[in-house]
Amino acid sequence: MLLVLCVDLDDDLGRKTGIPTPVIGDDDVTEAAVALATADPEDSDVNVLFQGVTVHDELAAEGEAVEVAAVTGVDGPDVKANRAVGAEVDRVLAELSTGEDVSAIVITDGAQDESVLPVIRSRMRIDGVRRVVVRQAQDLESLYYTIKQVLADPETRGTILVPLGVLLLIYPLVVVANLFDVEGAAVLGLISGGVGLYSLFRGLGLEETVDGAADAVRNVLYAGRVTLITYVVALALILVGGVQGTETVEAVRGVADGPLPPGATLTAFVHGVVQWLAVAGVTSSLGQITDEYLAGRFRWRYLNAPFYVVAIAVVLYAVSGFFLPPAPGVTALQLADLAMALAAGTLLGVLSTLTFAIAESQVPSGEPT
Questions:
Q1: Structure confidence at residue 369 as a pLDDT band (50, 70, 90)
Q2: What is the distance between the alpha carbons of residues 259 and 264, in angstroms, rounded to a whole number?
Q3: Collapsing DSSP states into helix, strand and coil, what is residue 237?
Q4: How far apart are CA 105 and CA 332, in angstroms?
Q5: What Å distances lie between residue 172 and 21, 169, 181, 185, 189, CA to CA?
Q6: Helix spans in 117-261 (H)
Q7: Phi/psi at 147 (nearest 5 deg)?
């Protein structure tokens, strides 16, 4: 038995007419084609359905045992659409349920729909593939209409017109640059760089990433997130800390007899920057804790963060000060001072952990454990 199979990979038939698929039988496929033509006369799948009916009638007139059916996929990724078509082909074969081997003539409207051919071939033999191409009048009106339709598509318009506009602007920009005694090569370089960045931007699909980042920032602003402010303050504190660390390195180098070894340079930088990093860490963690509390997700253990930051900062400040010579901006510590600082940092971390663990076990927080 021969099956004329009309393929609509993106399910225009189902989405635009509401007709359940698969559609089996000459009369049913004809009615589906008329319904789709009524809903969207410009849809190329209309021609696929009518072509399938025509091929069915021609083969039936020759005495061939033939049936016609229309199967659809989904409006989504190719893999998902191909699987949907495969499932509908299985239903068609089950409803035909003849004892004969079934082979198919596949009717499509383009290469995209033909990507499903391996799925169909895994279920039956394919005797032929016919791609429907609609003949258009080759006059000025038809050409104007085609160009108008292409330019009306935002994606096509952005892909074609933007690079074309940049290319057309090259010569006038070079002329203007020469009027202001600017080298034309510099203008060409800037334009080339702009076109290259645009091509990479479009080719890598970064517009979705940028749109997502913009939406995230907008949501943070509208939601009143405290972290937005605390992160900005923390960033400013880190920059100040970097400057302070550099100044500490210069102060230690000024009192040293010779150039500082890499280890001493790193120690001086840590000694100068660690205080500012600690304040930045406490600020950002307090902002995060506040947002978690406002969102109803507060846990007592979250309060450990600022105490841990302070404990680590105390240890780093003491250790770096112990190894540095007396200098402006340097707190030189003795061995006893170092021992006390290490003990204080350890106790601070341990006590905060125990305190908030007990609090969490005794007092319910915003989120159940």
A1: very low
A2: 10
A3: helix
A4: 88
A5: 57, 6, 14, 13, 15
A6: 117-121, 140-152, 154-179, 184-203, 206-223, 226-255
A7: -65, -40
* C-alpha closest to that of 55 among 43, 45, 44, 66: 66
What are the boundaries of each domain within the chain? 2-131, 140-204, 225-362
Summarised one tens digit per residue, pLDDT across range 165-178 is 777 777 777 777 77
Closest CA to 270 of 320, 338, 318: 320
* Residue among 331, 304, 307 nearest 317 (CA): 331
Closest CA to 101 of 136, 71, 127, 138: 127
Query: What does the radius of gyration of the chain's CA atoms come to, in whole angstroms?
Result: 36
Mean pLDDT over the full length of the chain: 83
Residues 6+ away with beta carbon under 8 Å from 316: 270, 274
| Nearest alpha carbon to residue 114 among 127, 101, 131, 95 | 131
Kindly state the helix (H) or strand (E) to which residue 331 belongs, with its residue range.
none
Give the residue among 120, 124, 78, 117 at the shortest CA–CA distance from 103.
124
